[in-house]
């Protein structure tokens, strides 16, 4: 059994960016994010968090995607993920 935890986070606004920061602090988490409006900035510079409680931090998710349709989903978990990826911009994967 793998100790790696794959996490898909949709949206990198204030709350999504904070959760991304918390998740990346765990070495077992392999974080994939969908960043639509700030995709280019995140791809080029990573995410910068300036927090009174956590200080200033720059970090990078493992994978960054512009839409959910480009996220690779294991065939065995497609039925579980489909509700999260059923945006109009996403193509329905074969089930």
From TrEMBL:
InterPro entries: KPR-Related (IPR051402), KPR_N (IPR013332), NAD(P)-bd_dom_sf (IPR036291). It comes from the Eukaryota. The keyword Membrane applies. Residues 8-67 form the Ketopantoate reductase N-terminal domain. Keywords: Membrane, Transmembrane, Transmembrane helix. It holds the Pfam family ApbA. One of its GO terms (cellular component) is cytoplasm. The chain crosses the membrane at residues 7-24. PANTHER family: PROBABLE 2-DEHYDROPANTOATE 2-REDUCTASE (PTHR21708), REDUCTASE FAMILY PROTEIN, PUTATIVE (AFU_ORTHOLOGUE AFUA_2G14497)-RELATED (PTHR21708:SF40). This is Ketopantoate reductase N-terminal domain-containing protein.
């Amino acid at each position: 059994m793998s100790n790696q935890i794959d996490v898909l986070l949709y949206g990198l606004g204030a709350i999504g960016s904070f959760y991304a920061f918390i998740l990346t602090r765990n070495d077992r988490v392999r974080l994939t994010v969908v960043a639509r409006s700030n995709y280019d900035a995140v791809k080029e510079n990573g995410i910068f968090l300036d927090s009174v409680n956590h200080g200033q931090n720059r970090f990078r998710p493992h994978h960054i995607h512009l839409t959910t349709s480009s996220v690779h989903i294991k065939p065995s978990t497609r039925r579980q993920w489909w509700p999260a990826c059923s945006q109009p911009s996403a193509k329905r994967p074969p089930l």
